[in-house]
Design a protein that fits this description.
This protein has two domains: about 30 residues, no CATH class; about 280 residues, Beta-galactosidase, Chain A, domain 5 (Distorted Sandwich). Helix content is about 0%, strand content about 50%. The chain is built from no helices and 24 strands.
Length: about 325
């Protein structure tokens, strides 16, 4: 809408060259407008979801430090880290790390759904959701309320070789329920602490980005596992490959799981800290909310959890992620 006093004299539009644009837009290559009034122009930008081109509005709200800034992604506030150790994005909804790229790695370590809408009250599909104070369908909403609640950035520390970010979850009475700390160096170490009076289940439900789920191998897992689909225990090979819907719980205090990604030619080491359970999940062809039909092909969940052995008040659960 140009309004009174504006007249389009000439306009020419063209389609982008085939395969040259990620955006479904028409290029306006030539436009002449005659105006009878002064006008100011503003540039409005939209940011694509880096993995597949899903559009979202991105707006800078506050520059906290030279390395840390607060942004708005559609409806959700996001803390962005841009530092010599790498880049990261953490949604304040859920204190949810959904992107991490160490300085030496050109590709994201974490997977994010290509159709993620960043909508308040809807859990983000991908990254590292915090399942707390229950796991799966032990209560409502599924996987607990922590991942759809707004957290606060309560502390941070920036040095030349390390960045530490701490987020807190408060009750309606302004009591601290839980905290989570992210330490970024060449690695990413995450520590979750339960501060509620009651013991609780918790899981760091990590979605790892992989090149092709069919070319994946998981090392250092036990051969005995609980299959959540059949509700039975069964024997499985180790190393493990994935070629179907998988939802299983390894109840063993493991040191680390190694993800061998033969497509991207990288190894992801997942060190489980104070975990009693390791969950491996991939939905395969099963329709899954917030995920495209082909999303399963480039992700695998390897989760550090306390399901069968709950966290007491003051107790921690953690994971350290590194690339080899």
């Amino acid at each position: 809408m140009l309004g009174t006093g504006a007249e389009i004299l000439n306009i020419r539009a063209e389609l982008p060259p085939l395969g040259k644009s990620r955006f479904n837009l028409i290029y306006i290559s030539h436009c002449v407008i005659r105006l009878s009034f002064p006008i100011k122009f503003a540039l409005y930008c939209i940011k694509p979801n880096e993995q597949k081109g899903n559009f979202m509005e991105s707006k800078l709200i506050k520059q906290i430090t030279p390395a840390i800034s607060l942004h708005q992604y559609n409806e959700i506030p996001v803390i962005k880290l841009n530092h010599a150790v790498g880049q990261a994005e953490i949604a304040l909804q859920g204190a949810h790390l959904f992107s991490w790229k160490p300085a030496y790695c050109p590709q994201d370590v974490l997977w994010l759904s290509e159709i993620e809408p960043f909508k308040l009250g809807t859990a983000i599909r991908g990254g590292i959701p915090i399942c707390y104070p229950w796991f799966n369908n032990a209560g409502t909403p599924s996987h607990g309320f922590a991942r759809i609640s707004l957290w606060q950035l309560s502390d941070y520390e920036v040095s030349a070789e390390k960045v530490r970010l701490e987020f807190s979850l408060f009750s309606e009475q302004r009591l601290i329920i839980a905290k989570i700390q992210f330490v970024f160096t060449g690695e990413c170490e995450i520590t979750f602490t339960n501060y509620a009076e009651e013991n609780a289940q918790a899981a760091l439900h990590t979605y790892f980005r992989v090149g092709d789920i069919r070319q994946l191998e998981l090392y250092n897992l036990p051969t005995r596992v609980f299959n959540s689909l059949t509700q039975t225990e069964e024997n499985v090979p180790s190393p493990r490959t994935i070629g179907e819907l998988v939802d299983c719980v390894y109840s063993a205090e493991l040191g680390a799981t190694l993800i061998q990604d033969n497509q991207l030619n990288r190894k992801i080491n997942v060190e489980h800290i104070n975990a009693s359970d390791i969950v491996v999940w991939n939905p395969w062809h099963k329709p899954t909310g917030g995920m495209s039909e082909t999303g399963y092909q480039t992700m695998v969940c390897v989760e550090s959890a306390r399901i069968n052995k709950r966290l007491n008040s003051g107790e921690r659960l953690g994971v350290k992620i590194s690339l080899r």
